[in-house]
Amino acid sequence: MRHVAAYLLAVLGGNDAPDAKAVKSIVEAGGGTVDDEALKMVLEQLKGKSVEDIIKEGVEKLADVPSGGGGGGGGGGAPAASGGDAAAPAAKKVEEKEASEEEDMDFGLFD
Question: I need a surface site. Which of 8, 29, 42, 75 has the fewest CB within 10 A?
Answer without folding.
Answer: 75
